[in-house]
Amino acid sequence: MKLLEVNCVIVLLGSLTWAPATATTFTLPSPWGYRCDADRCVKEENTGVDTLVTLNTCKLTCGPYGVLWPKPTTATVGNEVAEFLPTNVTYVTACVGEVCSLLETAIEIFKDNLQRYHPDYASGSAPWEGPWAPDTVAHTLHIAVDVTGKETRITLDTDESYDLLVATTGDVTSASISAPTFFGARHALETLSQLVEYQENRDSLMIVTTAKVTDSPVFKYRGIILDTSRNYISVESIKRSLDSMAANKLNSFHWHITDSHSFPLYLETLPNMAYYGAYSPRQVYYPADVRHLVEYGRVRGVRVLPEFDAPAHVGNGWQWTEKEESLGKLAVCVNREPWQSFCVEPPCGQLNLANPNMYKLLGQIYDEMVQLFSPIDLFHFGGDEVNLNCWNTTEEIVTWMNDNNFGLSSDAYYQQWGIFQEKARQLLTAANGGTEVPGIMWTSHLTEAGHVDRYLNNSQYIIQIWTTGDDPVIGELLNKNFRVIFSNYDAWYLDCGMGAWVGAGNNWCSPYKGWQTVYDNSPYAMAISQTGSPHPDLVLGGEAALWTEQGDDTTVDSKLWPRGAALAERLWTNPDTNWEAAETRFIHHRQRLVMRGIMAQRVQPEWCHQNEGLCYL
Amino acid sequence: NLFCSRYKRSITVASDKTMITKVASDVGRIFLLVCLVFSVPPCSTTFRLTSPWGWRCINETCVKQENDGVRSLADLSTCKLTCGQDSTIWPSPTGFLKIAPQTVHFLLESLTLRGITAPTDQVKELVEKAFHIFRDNVGKNIPEGGGKATVMGPFHKQVTSHRVFVAVTVTGRVTRLSLETSEAYTLGITTRGDVTNATVLAGDFFGARHALETLSQLIEYDELAGVLQIVSTAAVVDAPVYKYRGILLDTSRNFFSVRAIERTLDAMAASKLNTLHWHITDTHSFPLYLESLPRMAFFGAYSPREIYRAADVRHLVEYGRVRGVRVLPEFPAPAHAGNGWQWAQKQGLGKLGVCLNQEPWQSYCVEPPCGQLNIINNNTYNILAQIYKELLDIFSPLDLFHFGGSKVNLNCWNTTEEIVAHLEKEGHGRDHESFYRLWGSFQKSALDLLTQANQGKQIPGILWTSQLTEKDRIESHLDPQQYIIQILTNRTDKMIKSLLTKGYRVIFSNQDAWNLGCGFGNLSPSGKSWCINYKGWQAVYDNSPNNISATLTGSSHRNLILGGEAVLWSHHVDDTTLDSKLWPRGAALAERLWTNPDTNWEAAETRFVHHRQRLVRRGIMAQRVQPEWCRQNEGHCYL
C-alpha cells in the first residue's frame, strides 16, 4: 500500500515541470505516526493495523496539559479531537460597556490565530482546500464569553484569572469562558487557541473535544523590555513582539525609548528632540505610532509602559538647546571622549543638574509622554549608571556645586541625584494631573546596599533588579519593603553572548542565556535564599531585557523568542519543576510562535521534536 | 497618504532651521489629526522629518557634522562611497583600486547593458543573467519598494539625462567553476558629460560577475537627492587569494526552505564567496528525494513538506552558478547516516544502517540520534552507488565531492553482532586498527563507486579530519592526489602540521573561529565548552589560514591551502535565523579568503558595518553588530 503511494508520487513528479510553487504543494505521504504512551508521544511506523495519529493530534491530547503554554494553574484536557474549519466559529458575549468592543477585537485576533495554523497562511488568509468529511464541514466551534468587570486598562490590581470549559455535543464544540475582567477573558481565548491545531491529513483544524481550565497568574508583572535607542526597531517589529507576548500571556511591554545613542520619539511640543536625536528621518516614532502601539497592546492584554531614562543615559537629541539662549546646555558630556572616563559605553551624556531649564524640558517631555501612553498606571524613570566624573569635570556643574556649598564629594553628587529624582517624580505627578503613579527605578548607586532607602521611598518606587540573582541588595530591598521586579542579567538579559561591539572577544554578559536558564530563574527562590521568605506581596514579577547594541529588526524576534516564552511560564505558573518537565511543550510552542509570524529561534533539531524525550543528556 | 506626502515635501524644502522646527511642529499636529481621522496604522511612514546632520570626509573618515546651511554636507552613503581607499567595496580588492571622490546621479532606468563580448553563447547568456541580477541589486538600494522601487521626482535634467552603460568582455569559455578558475577581473568607470561607462574585462564569466558585484558596490542611493549615484571615475584590478571560499549549510538537523538557501546564495554572491557546501543528510533526517530511491526521503524526511526534490536541487545549482557559487554536495558516510535507511531491511536487503536511533546514544555516537552504515553488507555499496549516481546527475557537473567521513564511533560497529561476526570470520581482530582498516577500505570503495558513477573520471574528494586522517594513519588510507582534507579541529591542532608536511591539500574550518553555530547553549547534548562562546565577526575575520600554517610549520604552504569555509551546524537554526547566523559574519570570512589582508578587523570595521547594511537592503536578515550610532560616528566605538 505504502509502496503504491510512493510509485504514484514518482509518476506525478515525472509529469511536473519544475516550479517552486508546485514543489511546495506536492507532498509525499509519511510512513510515520504517533502514539501517546505514558504522557509522551512516541514515533512509530504505520503498520496499517494500529491507528497512529499525526504529531499535532498526539501533542494536543497527550499529557495532562496538552500543548498549553504557559501551563495553567489547573487543567484537564481530553484525549479526543473534533475536526472543524476556521470559518465555522460563532460566539456570544455577556459584557458591559467598552469591554464588549474589546472582546470583539480579541475574538477577531483569535480567529486570525486559527487561520495562522495553516502552513500556507499568508497575509490574513489561508488556502483551506480539504477534501473534508461531512462532519468536519458541519462542525461548529461556539464560544460564549462572560465578563463581569468593567476594567479596560491593565493595572497591578487587575484580576487576570479565567475559567474555560470546552464540551462537545454532536456537531458543536462549545467553549465557555468566564472571567472577572476583559484581561482574563483574552487569556482564556489564548488558551482556547492552544487547544486547536492543524490537521495535516485533512487540511482542517482540530480541537480537543473536552477541557476544563481554571487559571490565574502567579505574578502580576510579566514583562519584556525593548531598547529602541541603541538601534531603531520598526513599528511592525514591535507589533510582532506584542503578538508574541499575547501568545505567552505576558502583560508588560517596557519600552526603553531613548538613551544617549538616539532619541527616536517625535514629540509635538519638542520636535527638535527627534530632529537632532533620531538616527535618521526614517527612524522615528510619531505620536500616532505610539498611540497605535498602546492600543495594539491593550487589546492583547499588554500594558505598554514607557521608560524615560534620566539623569544618565541621555545625550543625542539634547544638542539643540544650547543654541537657544533661553535654554542653555541641558545635557552635558554628550558624545564626550575618551568615553571610558565619562560613561559606561559610547556615546556619553547626562542631564545638566545645574541648569533649571532642564526641569522645564523634562516636565514637557513627561507631559507629552503621559498623554501618548495614557492612562499610565506605572512609569519607568530609568535612573541607572550615573557617572560622577562626567558631572565633576563639567565646569558649569562644579561651579554650581561649589556656589551652593554642596561640595564635590561622591555623597554630594548622590545627594543631588536624589534631589533630581524627587523633582522628576513631582514633574511626572504634575504631568499626570496630580495623580501619583508608582515609579520604577533600576538598581543603581541610589539603591546601593547599606542605604537602599536613603533616597527612595518604598511607597513611591518599585525597584527593578538588573544585577545578578545573588546580589545582596535584593535581600535588603525586600527587608526594607520595596516592591521589586527581577531582571537579573545572569538569567534574563537576552542580548548576552554575542561578539563584543567595542573591541574584540565576546560581549560583557556572555555567555548566551539559554532558555533553560531563563526558565529556571525563580524570583521566589532568589528572595528566599536571601530573606528566608518568598515575599509574594513585594515581588511583583520579572522582565527579560533586550538591549539592542547588537540587534535590530532582523533579529528582534529570534532574540526574544522562544526564550521570552520560558520567562512567561516562570512568571505565570511559577512551576515547582525545572525546564526538563517543560521541554516538550516548549518546543511545540516555539512552532506555534513561528506559525503566528514570529521568527522565533529553533532550540533543537526537529528530530527531538518528533522523538520526544530522546535528546537527553 | 496624499496629505502626508504633501507635508513631507513642504518640510523638505524648508531650509531655515527654526522654520523647520516650526513647520515640523505644525505639521506634526495636522499630521496627527489626519492620521486619527484615517485610523491606524497611519501614514507615518511617508511623513518625514528632515535631518540637521551631514557627513564630511576628513582623513579618510566620514565625520558627522551639523549642517550650517553654508557648506553642503553629504549624506552618510555618499560620504562612505568616496571616502577612504577602499570605498565600501567588500571584500577589498587585491590588485589596484582607485576611486575619484565624485559621484554622478542617475535613474535606474538609465542603467543599461551596452554590450557583451564573449567567446560563446553560453558565456554570453550567463553574463546577461548576471547583469540582470546586478541591476536588480542596484534597484534594492532605493528604499521603500524593493527592486521595483519608483523614485519620486521630478528630478533635474542633469539627473534624468544621465546614462550609465555597462560593457562586459569575457575571454574564456569556462561556464562551471573549478579550482582552476581564475575569477580575476578589471573594472573601469569613466564619466564624460552625461554618460558614465563601466567597462568589465575578465578571463572567465566568474571574474565578470565579481566585477559586476564590485560595480554594484560603487553605486549608492543618495538620501538627500532621492536618487541613485555612481562613482564617476574608478579603476579596479582584482583577483581572489584563495580558490575555495565556502559556507557549510546542514539541512539534516533542521530543514531549510529552498527560498532560504537562495537567500544564502544571494548573500554569498554579494561577498564573492564561491562554494556552498551542502551537508544534505545526517543521522537526523534524509530530506533529499532521490528518484531512484524514493524510500530514503519517505522514511527519512521530517515530513512530506520538508523535502528537496531533484528540481529544487537543480534549481539551486543553477541559481548558484549564475552567482559565481559552486553548490557542492556532501553525503556523509560511514558515520552520520541513520534516519532514511530503515526501509532496506524490509526490502530484503538486510540492515544497511546500524545503531540507528540506538540508546543510550552516548555509547554509540556523539549526539542523538545514532547511526552508521553497515559496511560489511554488500547491499550498502549497491545503494551507495545509486545515491552517488543520482547526486552526480542532479549536481552535475561536479568538480569536487564531499565524502563526509568525520568521526566514526567504533563501539557502534564493535557491538553490532553482524559486523563482529564478519571480522571474526575474516580473521581480523577487534582492536581499533582493525576497525580503521575496515573504514579505510570502505572509503576506498566509496571513491571507486563515485568514480564509476562519474563515468570513470576521478573527482577530488573532500574528507573531514577524523581518526583516519591522524598522522600515523592517513597515508595508508588516503592518497593526497585524490583527497582534500577539511580541517574541523582547532588552529593549534598538530594534525594540521602533519597534513601540510605530508602534502595534503586542505580547507580550513577550524572550529575555534569558523563555527558559526556556537554560542547558543550546547550544540548537542554532549556539547563541549569549546562551543559555548559565540564567534564574533572579529574572530572570524582574524582567523588566517596562512598564519596558522606559518605558526605550525614555518611555511605558509600557499599551494596546499585551498581556502576556508565557515560551518553552520543547524542544531539551533532553521529558516528563522539562518540569515542572522551566517551574516554578516560570513562576509568577514569572505574578506579573509578573497583579500587575505595583513591588517586585522579594526581596519575593516567601517566597511564591514556598511556592508551589513547592504546585505539587509538585499533582503538578507543579517544581524546588527553595533549600535547605529557607531556607524554614523565612525571610529568612536573603540575600546
Automatic annotation (TrEMBL), chain A:
GO molecular function: beta-N-acetylglucosaminidase activity
Keyword Iron-sulfur: no
Catalytic activity, EC: 3.2.1.52
Species whose genome carries this gene: Cherax quadricarinatus
Pfam families from the UniProt entry: Glyco_hydro_20, Glycohydro_20b2
Domain Beta-hexosaminidase eukaryotic type N-terminal: 68-195
Gene3D superfamilies linked to this entry: Chitobiase/beta-hexosaminidase domain 2-like (3.30.379.10), Glycosidases (3.20.20.80)
Biological process according to GO: carbohydrate metabolic process; glycosaminoglycan metabolic process
UniProt KW keywords: Glycoprotein, Glycosidase, Hydrolase, Signal
Protein name: Beta-hexosaminidase
From TrEMBL, chain B:
SUPFAM superfamilies, A to Z: (Trans)glycosidases, beta-N-acetylhexosaminidase-like domain
Keyword Acetylation attached: no
Top-level class of the enzyme under EC nomenclature: hydrolase
Annotated Gene Ontology cellular component terms: plasma membrane
InterPro entries: Beta_hexosaminidase_sua/sub, GH, Glyco_hydro_20_cat, Hex-like_dom2, HEX_eukaryotic_N
Pfam families (alphabetical): Glyco_hydro_20, Glycohydro_20b2
Residue span(s) of domain Glycoside hydrolase family 20 catalytic: 242-596
A Gene Ontology biological process term: glycosaminoglycan metabolic process
Keywords, ordered alphabetically: Glycoprotein, Glycosidase, Hydrolase, Signal
All copies of domain Beta-hexosaminidase eukaryotic type N-terminal, residue ranges: 89-218
Catalytic activity, as annotated: Hydrolysis of terminal non-reducing N-acetyl-D-hexosamine residues in N-acetyl-beta-D-hexosaminides
EC number(s) per entry: 3.2.1.52
Listed GO MF terms: beta-N-acetylglucosaminidase activity
PANTHER family: BETA-HEXOSAMINIDASE, BETA-N-ACETYLHEXOSAMINIDASE
Family of the protein in this entry: Belongs to the glycosyl hydrolase 20 family.
Descriptive protein name: beta-N-acetylhexosaminidase
